[in-house]
Amino acid sequence: xxxxxxxxxxxxxxxxxxxxxxxxxxxxxxxxxxxxxxxxxxxxxxxxxxxxxxxxxxxxxxxxxxxxxxxxxxxxxxxxxxxxxxxxxxxxxxxxxxxxxxxxxxxxxxxxxxxxxxxxxxxxxxxxxxxxxxxxxxxxxxxxxxxxxxxxxxxxxxxxxxxxxxxxxxxxxxxxxxxxxxxxxxxxxxxxxxxxxxxxxxxxxxxxxxxxxxxxxxxxxxxxxxxxxxxxxxxxxxxxxxxxxxxxxxxxxxxxxxxxxxxxxxxxxxxxxxxxxxxxxxxxxxxxxxxxxxxxxxxxxxxxxxxxxxxxxxxxxxxxxxxxxxxxxxxxxxxxxxxxxxxxxxxxxxxxxxxxxx
Length: 358
Hints:
The chain has 16 helices and no strands. The protein has a domain at 168-337. Residues 344-358 have low confidence and may be disordered. By secondary structure, it is mainly alpha-helical.
């Protein structure tokens, strides 16, 4: 089973990691120009939404289709991805990883079935219309089919978080929270579930603080995960991790580390370890914030920590980072990230050092 998970993670990595540059570009723009960013700019902030909702999922969908059936598969995969993007409110990274390869596989099957029956001279006409017709059908299916499924999943995760907190098992709430975050439902969970719960708890607290504001926004576990990739990872994941650390920990853009987990799904265990460890510290020290830190950076945390709470809050952030780093490093040593096809080709094409026999 672990081999299957690793194989699946390697395939996801081949879709995500080649597009890390685009994800980093979006993270930098977001960290600087959103209203709560370093240098707010209303004009440039108009880039943030379209990039994460349209550009990045379609790039991933194209890459997934291309892996299955070249450029032609990539085109159909991108069209299918555009359909699910329009049919959903949340960024469809995971959906793109599912439908992109499906679109590539379907057009590949069509080409196999018709390759010997198309009259000579009509190949380009057939290729153009087949990709267009199949893509149009898949786009409609994406619009009508994915939105309700995603909404159901979002509601289920939110209800699960509320039930766990109500049962007095607050550290375990990190399990559905991290799953929801990786599916880019972080804002729905934070502002739709934890935010209202935190506001009610803060109103009833003598010092107007609540632990709920710490659960989804904690930058510690994500920092530990990215540090594990930086020190123990390989390929583009290792090379891009330092830049992602800056965007995540100091810029507060947690979405930057989600693709690293989607590319290597077993790493969700490291996030669970970091989140649960941090939440245990928060509970033990009775820590809390006076408001939701937005974005979830260490600077935003410092701005909303009430007097006397710095040890508990920052201690939880530190413990979460250490726990996710240790568990993530162990996982990456036992089940390392596989190289993508592009990285393997680059390594093969690299010239040998002088004096080394070919």
